[in-house]
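Hi Y.,

Following your request, here is the sequence exactly as I used it, all 504 residues.
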Amino acid sequence: MRFSKKILFLIVNLALLSTSYCQINIDSGLVAFYPFNGNTDDYSKNRNHGVVNGATLTTDRFGNPNSAYYFNGKSNIIIKNIPQIAFNNQNCFTVCLWIKTNCLSEGDILYKQNYGIWNGYFLRINNKDKGYSTLPGHLSFYTASGAKEDAYSNDALNNNNWIFIVGTFNGIMNISTLYINGIKQIHIGKRSGKILNKEDLMIGSNSLYLNFFNGKVDDIRIYNRILGEDEIKFLYFTKTISIPYWETSWYKVLQIAGIVIIISGIVSGIFLIIIYRIKKRNELDRKLNNFMFQALSKQMNPHFIFNSLNSVNNFILKNEKLESSRYLTKFASLMRSVLKNSQHQLIPINDEITALKLYIELESLRFDNSFNFTLNIDEKINIDENEIPPLLIQPYIENSILHGLIPKEGEKKLSLNFEKKIIKNKEYILCSIEDNGIGRKKSNMIKLKKETKHQSYGTAINKQRMEVLSTIKKMNIEIKYIDIEDSYGNAIGTRVELLIPVVL
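Below is the corresponding structure, written out as C-alpha cells. Let me know if you'd prefer a different format.
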C-alpha cells in the first residue's frame, strides 16, 4: 500500500512538471499575446494593449462567448508601440493566429508596414490579380521590401471554417514561410529589407483604413524567434491556448495541488487507522464499516478530486479568483464533513444534509450552474436527533445529476425531500430524490453506446450495507425506483425513494 502511494505521488509530480515545462517552452520568445478573453489586453510581459475601432466580441472556435473579435468589413483593432527592443538582432519572428472568414473578398488580416518605405509585414486575403504572386482567394504573407515573391497558401481559403495561420520570417536567409492548420505551404517568400518598424499593428485593415477584413480573429501570438514545426503543430492541436505562466496563478495552482495531495495522503492514513480498528470487531461489524469505507472512497475518488482541481484551475485561468476560492473552500469543507461522518455508523440527518448540500453545490459549480436544486424538509422531522446511516443518499443524487440531468437539454431540476411517515405505528423518514432528466431507459441506452461504461459502485455498496444493517440493527431500509412519465408514456424524469426507520 505504501509503495503504491509513493509511485502515485511520483507520477502526479512528474505530470505536473512536464506540463509546466511544456508551458514555459511554448512561451519562450513571446513578445505579444492577445487571447481576446473579453478584451484586447496583451498577456505577454510587454503589456501592449489594443484599442478597438468597431470590432465586437463574439464566440471563439470552442463556442465560448466573448472570446474572439468579429470584424464586419468596416472595423479594426490598433495596437501601438509593438516593442522593437523585444526582437533579436537576427530580425527573425513568428506570428500565429486563428481566423474564420465570412467572405473571400480582399482584406488585410494583420498589417504592420509603412507606405513608401515598405518595411514590415502583413497577412492578406487576395481576391484579384494585382501583380502579386498569389491567386484569388488565397492567403498571402508579405514581408519587407524587394522582389515580389511572397509566401502564399496552396489553396483558396474556405469560408465559415476556423483556420490556424502561422507566418515565419528568417532574417538571415530573407525567407518567409506560411503554415495553414499546421501544414507548411509550398510557396515560400524571398524578400529583402527590414522587418522592424515603428508602425502600429493593425488588425482587420491596413494603416490607410483600406482593405478591411470580414470575419473572426482569435489568439494572436507574436514571437521574436522562428517556431519549429513541432511547436506549430502543438499550438494547432491544443484545444485551449493558456495564458503565459507569468500572467496566471500557475504557481498557486501547483501549491494548491500539492496541498490537496498531502491532505489526501493524510486522509488516506486516517482511513487506514479506522480500518485497523474495525478489524478488531466482529465479522458483521467489519463488513458494515468496510462498506462505509468503500462508499467514502467512491464519493471522494480520484476522478472527483481531479474534476474539482480542474474546475479550480479553469476559474484561475479565467482570472475568476473569487469563484476559485469559493470552490476550493467548499471542496475542503466537503472533505472534512465526509471524513467526520465516516467515523460513525449513524449520524444526525442534519449532518448528512450539510454534506449533501456541499456536494450538490460543487457539482452545480462544476457544470456551470446548469441545474436548479430544491430541498424540502418536513417540519415534523427532528433533524438534529433523528439519525440515518452516512453516505447513504449521495450515490443516488450523483446518478440523477450525471445520468439524468447533464445529458438533458433545456431546464434541469433536482429536488431532495424528507418527509415523516407513520406505517403500522412505526415512524419512518421518506427520503426522495427526484429529477426531470432523460429517464433510466434512455440513460442506459447512452451507457451501452459508450466504449467505457460507468459502473455505479456507490448504489451497489449501499445495497450490501442495507443487508448488513438489517442483520445487525434490525434496520430495514427499503428503496424504490419510479419512472416518471407524461400522459403519452414518455420519460420526463426519475424518482428514487428511500424509506428509513427513525432512529433516535
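The two ends are 39 Å apart (CA to CA).

Thanks again,
Q.
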